[in-house]
Amino acid sequence: MGGAVSAGEDNDDLIDNLKEAQYIRTDRVERAFRAIDRGDYYLDDYRDNAYKDLAWKHGNIHLSAPCIYSEVMEGLRLRPGLSFLNLGSGTGYLSTMVGLIVGPFGVNHGVELHKDVVEYAREKLEDFIKNSDSFDKFEFCEPVFVVGNCLEISADSHQYDRIYCGAGVQKDHENYMKVLLQIGGVLVMPIEDQLTQITRTGQCTWESKNILAVSFAPLVQQSRADGANKPDSVRLPPVSVRSLQDLSRIYIRRTLRRLGGGGDDDDWDWGIDGRGPGPTQRHPATTAAAAAPTPQTLPPPPPPQKRKRRRRCSRRRFNAYVFGDSQLINPKPQAKLGCGSIGGWEEEAEEAEAEGREERGEEGETTTTTTTVEEEEEEEEEVMVVGGEEEGEGERERDMAEVETLKQANVLRDQIMALPLPESLKAYLLYYREK
């Protein structure tokens, strides 16, 4: 299944194609897809096919097509603090992307039939945490994988806010999947060649919506032959409370990330329970105060005036050119144009020189500086002025922006390394990452 969009040269190119084809429609899903390189979940010999919109299978390892994962991520309607269960978690690619959205106060569990695939998923997860440049830009809910058949989950298991099943579900097992879902939760799974979104609206009420025509291999059922042992039930990972040490690490990293202006979780201001006010919501008292009626007799306050920032040109050197004892290179007087023009620099230089002479009690004509042809060419290369405006100003600003972007990549690590803490504690705050 796949082939709905053009192949990309790299991960970003693939995501651009998925956005253009409207498979990726929200910013959160886009950020998660860009943060995790799909090629990292391929074996090295098959990485050339990673950015095609095609499914890939090698032995027990399997990845669905990018367009399928895009529709699944959009259909799950993820947000911070939710609990997520991945039935048939495979390589962990989808679970890792979900972990970037649900955040550190969410729950992220996966069940996979094959033990070798679970080991592969754990290796890829460790590699992402230790080596990915994207890890420090997000608050992450690390997925926990267990080995077992998702049709044998223990009856006393807790329910989840979001569930995805990565194998074809027969009608006989539809209700079994629904029981694992909390009221208000969303389940996405393929049923009868249709990727279906099911929302639990009540204790016994559901709403279904077909998302996309798909083709999935069916769920593997354990043999029920006579005399065969009953398969062991799958115990899902417990939902545990984070330790105080772990909470401290989360909030220290969050604070440093916001102080540094980096990261993609700036709009995820959630409390410990993960269900705090959203980015556009306000405290009730603030909302009430804003909605309170104001007397009509009072005119509205004037809008705040923006303070104009004056450009400082004191660092620029200006040389006046002469060809003799008193003849200037520009004998015509120029109007005052400010610091963005030659005339402005002349007047500022003359004023500064006059003030210096007054302080020293000196009198006389303005001293000029004679420059050679080489110095004049160097000066013209440094600052080119055309019609009173500087050429290359936009180019210099772009260069500064690129440098700032490069600095931003490691700003959290630099901030942690600068803290007056023992090296062992710094390593813990960095999740023992070496990059």
What are the key terms here?
435 residues; alpha/beta; Rossmann fold; seven-stranded mixed β-sheet; two-stranded antiparallel ribbon; 11 strands
What does this protein look like?
This protein is an alpha/beta fold and 435 residues long. Among the domains are: 11-241, Vaccinia Virus protein VP39 (Rossmann fold, 3-Layer(aba) Sandwich); 317-382, no CATH class. The protein has helices spanning 11-20, 27-35, 66-76, 93-102, 115-131, 174-179, 244-260, 284-291, 342-360, 373-382, 393-409, 411-417, 423-429; strands at 56-58, 61-63, 83-87, 107-112, 144-147, 160-165, 181-191, 194-200, 206-213, 384-386, 389-391. The strands form three sheets. The protein has a seven-stranded mixed sheet with strand order 5-4-3-6-7-8-9. Strand 4 (107-112), helix 5 and strand 5 form a beta-alpha-beta unit.
Total helix count?
13
Proper CATH architecture of the domain at 11-241: 3-Layer(aba) Sandwich
How much of the sequence lies in strands comes to 5-15%
Mean pLDDT over the residues: 77
Distance between the termini: 37 Å
Helix/strand class: alpha/beta
Taking pLDDT < 50 over at least 5 consecutive residues as the criterion, the unreliable ranges are 265-297, 320-346, 362-373, 380-391, 402-408
Under CATH at level 1, the class of the domain at 11-241 stands as: Alpha Beta
- The side-by-side strand order for the widest beta sheet comes to 5-4-3-6-7-8-9
User: CATH homologous superfamily of the domain at 11-241 - what is it?
Assistant: Vaccinia Virus protein VP39
Main location: cytoplasm
Region (Disordered): 263-313, 346-399
InterPro entries: PCMT (IPR000682), SAM-dependent_MTases_sf (IPR029063)
Keywords: Cytoplasm, Lipoprotein, Membrane, Myristate
